[in-house]
Write a structure and sequence with these properties.
The complex is a heterodimer of chains A (about 450) and B (about 525). Chain A is of the alpha/beta class. The longest helix of chain A is centred in the C-terminal third of the chain and has 38 residues. The model of chain A has no long low-confidence stretch (mean pLDDT about 95). With about 525 residues, chain B is an alpha/beta fold. Chain B has a domain of about 230 residues: 3-Layer(aba) Sandwich (Aspartate Aminotransferase, domain 2). Chain B is built from 17 helices and twelve strands. The longest helix of chain B has about 40 residues. Classes of the chains: A alpha/beta (about 450), B alpha/beta (about 525). Chains A and B meet through helix 1, helix 2, helix 3, helix 4 and helix 5 of A and helix 3, helix 4, helix 5, helix 6 and helix 7 of B.
Amino acid sequence: MSRYTSATDADRRAMLAAIGADSIEDLFADVPAGVRLDRALDLPPGKPEQEVYAHLRDLAARNTSAEEEISFLGAGMYDHYVPSLVDSIVSRSEFLTPYTPYQPEISQGGLQVMFEYQTAISELTGLPVSNASVYEGPSALAAAGYLAKLQQSGERTRFLVSRGVHPHSRETLETTSAGWGTSIQELPLAAGVTDAAALQEALDEHVAAVFLQYPNFLGAVEDLEALVPLAKAHGALVIVACDPIPLGILRPPGDFGVDVAVGEGQTLGNRLDYGGPSFGFFAAQEAHLRRMPGRIAGETTDVDGRRGFVLTLQTREQHIRREKATHNICTAQALNALAGVIHLSWLGREGLVELGELLLQRTAYARDALTGIDGVQALHDQPVVREFAVSLDADVDRVIEACAADGVNPGHALHRDYPEYGDGLLVALTEQRSMGDIDRLARTLRGALHTVREGARA
Amino acid sequence: MTNDNRLHADPAVEDDGAERPVRLAETAQQHDRARTIFEKSQSGRRAFVAPALDVPAQDGLLPDRFRRTEPARLPAIAEPEIVRHYTRLSKRNFDLDTGFYPLGSCTMKHNPKLHERVAALPGHARLHPLQHPRRAQGALQLMWELQRALAEIAGLPHVSLQPSAGSHGELAGVLLTRAYHLDQGQHRTKVLTPDTAHGTNPATVRMAGYEVVKVGTNDRGGVDVEDLKAKAGEDVACLMLTNPNTLGLFDEAIEEIAAIVHGVGATLYYDGANLNAVMGIARPGDMGFDIVHYNLHKTFTQPHGGGGPGAGPIAVSDRIEPYLPRPQVVRRESGNGAGPSFELDFERPKSIGRLRGFQGNFGVFVRAYAYILSLGADGLREASETAVLNANYLLARLRETAGEHLPVAYDRTCMHEFVLTGGPMKRALGLRTLDLAKRLLDFGYHPPTIYFPLLVDEALLVEPTETETRETLDAFAEAVGAVLAEAAEDPETARSAPYTTPVRRLDEAGAAKRPVIRQAL
């Protein structure tokens, strides 16, 4: 079905005549007969717009979204409210449809957005330099690993990775680093946070980098003040993955002297979208600027002295340096980063702090409410900001199913990634989950535990 | 004259009180100085109203040593000013919906509006990635059906949607090659890339831990087969190839190339940046490729967003399948008449593992799937045919309007894009390709890709795409002709262009020498 093209038969005849070809087929004469497809693609015929819409609407209706249940799912992506001005601005075609700003004179809007975004990320993380975004959180952590590999001498081939780092990030680092000649050693958790003694024990002159998460996957605020100096004393780079919303109230990683802070940017103005697209952020100490991955916007002036912005330090990048590039990334997540900086402007200087305080209080309330239930125990007692982990005395998968039947999603089951915690459950809060929702969760969970225990007995 | 100039200015131009030199004929946008949102911040202003604290307040939840002492210096600004700020910034961008964007290798085709609507349905947009598959059946079915459709288009049976962009797909492909060879006890150290390759190819090779070996190009713009034979040894893991290549030419020797590569036990990797030329016409799998990546933000209409998001799914042959990233979306028959269900399969012992979090850029999958449904088999083929027709037509028109100074680099029938060389223009008119590109901005066009591929002197890579009209192509050819005619009289005009854009030529060298990459606060 012809769609989104304008060429009429008359156009085709005139155009072929101008080319000097007899038919469209002639234009493909260089494609050898042996590799031609001698049949139509085995795909359904095209459909009119209204039918495509209806089909996709029906598929979407088969999903249970956060619109339709009271969800406490988090574990890396969170159901924060996306303010309406984000939708309005990011859907403007001037932001939605350009390519990467290779022609700065006609791309000042996008380039200035990158500059503002870099400033905001730099402020949040407490680190002096930020790039203009990478794909998403876990690959951002792997990109930081590549920076460490390029930066450190060939003698330093060991990565120490806390078990509190998101399992997807740990696995992504492992996949990505397969050809680097590096090895990964996991640092265990003790009482819900990275075991400082185990870190001390594992450090030596062969460690290239130490990877931590703040707050960690179990919601616990890691004691960076204690951990970072241990790693630095051995010449290791410290890479910290962090969640930007809690950074409204948490000391920023830059305060502790970390080398690189990365993270998942979804919570800043981006929808859940079943996992993407979102963006990853990447901020670092100035010493690492020339080994950063991806695009960086910089300020300059035009020939008339006007302030303007360009992509800068491009000698790091694949299109200039090719095999000597600091990373292979080309297309990143510019539109998602725009959503991020708009959301941060909307929250504002005071709002981000207020949001953090609200989450802190509601999370504490929810932790108390749940651990007050018979059969629910806290997995750790560390400070938490927006997420906490508990263990249940009944099969967690069945408990989640029983809660779902009641319109509540109690959180993420931990057993796939953390079998050592048995029937562990990770529970996340956002400003969209009220005290009433938390009370409902507690009631539902209590009932579900009862139902599952009774079922197990029967 | 000063007052006249002010009259031309946008009445809404902000008065920041700064002194400015008066410039004649300064456009409104040029007059609108680039103040950042941080500079518009005024303490006490705000947009966000926090929900009331509804739970009993507790003290001491966060020990002081974990507390930030000073708030992050984000802007303090009200909603109307945020909206105005970013709306004004948007007007300092050129975009595809406004005008012709023949940026070679980037496939700047129309982004259908339906796609934004279906991606925003709450069942997609607010679906948590860790929702139990039982309650995400619609999303998993969509992914599974997209995998099937992409597999058919590439002619390879197995697809992973996980990679986030083309370069991420490339990394996946080379890591798959590595896993495949290691599984056979082979340690290969080199990957071949043509000298015409995208920069991402050699960068990827290094990130995957291999040495890059360049293969030359013959006088018809294809792979130099003799050079390939000389370099293809038992230590070579892979040849990464784009076909049609970055010169816009279909490599006629592809079958021989595939035989050489497979003959030494290496894999053949297809960089799908140029897939828009061959949908329904020739399939990479049938050409002998083992691994393909797609750029959903090129061929399959995901809007590029000013630098992303994209998605770079990969398709592979049977022998590579065991190593695909996990999880994989699979369909299971119920066996009890209840119909199939869709699941995430993590039990893949030979998998290279994850390349990112969760299941990939699902929002991009929704758009690509909607596009494939809309076009169907015939529509996809017609899209490729029209892309190739448009490219050859524009080439023919440019031969007329600019052929003397901007001849085609390889005089063959092109596919969906073609490369001109500005060498004669530079010698005869003293105009570089950069100058031509900058002057085209004043004519309201996004210029073609310039200085790529590297082996063509003063290269200009032009990709019109299938969604442009004949009239648009004619007008662009005339504009290029007009720039050249102007330069024959007065090359200085183009050398100092552009004039009408929000800013004029920018000092890029200065920006790199003394990097200022954040707002000073």
